[in-house]
Design brief:
Shape: globular
Helix content: 10-25%
Radius of gyration: 14 Å
Oligomer: single chain
Number of helices: 2
CATH class: Alpha Beta
Largest sheet: 6 strands, mixed
CATH architecture: 3-Layer(aba) Sandwich
């Protein structure tokens, strides 16, 4: 997934998520294009290219969004790192309640992976009918892939 990707979509992690800063650093070193989402009023995610000098603004959701206006097409993103609160061993996730990623993933053709703390893995819930699983989940504890 990573080695084949030339464009990676990733959020700027909040304090309750695994730190994504090392992903940004590695991607920049390897010459990958990094794109960060914005969640506009229409609830459709847009992704914007960033670099080491990009400035960010804290959104109403408490997530840093780039001040960059330029957008990339969904088809340009090879690998999307999908955030969430709870993850199942089948790759399903409970997000932050806005449905932004669920809508985005319905037509996304690239690879998907989620990063999670081991404590976020739970199978005591059922995904909703329209939920789309990610292809891989990697945890901090075991560094394992749970779903492929």
């Amino acid at each position: 997934m990573w080695s084949e990707a030339s464009c990676v979509g990733v959020i700027r992690a909040t304090g309750i998520e695994l730190d994504t800063q090392p992903i940004f650093q590695r991607a920049f070193i390897e010459g990958k294009k990094v794109v960060v989402p914005k969640a506009p009023q229409d609830r459709l995610l847009t992704f914007h290219p960033v670099d080491e000098k990009t400035q960010y603004l804290l959104s109403n959701f408490g997530v840093e969004e780039p001040l960059v206006q330029q957008q990339v097409e969904k088809s340009e993103i090879d690998l999307l790192i999908v955030p969430g609160l709870i993850f199942s061993s089948q790759g399903y996730r409970i997000g932050f309640g806005g449905g932004y990623y669920d809508r985005f993933l319905t037509t996304f053709q690239g690879q998907t992976v989620s990063l999670a703390f081991n404590e976020q893995l739970r199978d005591d819930w059922q995904p909703a009918e329209l939920d789309i699983p990610v292809k891989k989940i990697i945890t901090d504890f075991r560094n394992e892939v749970f779903y492929e």
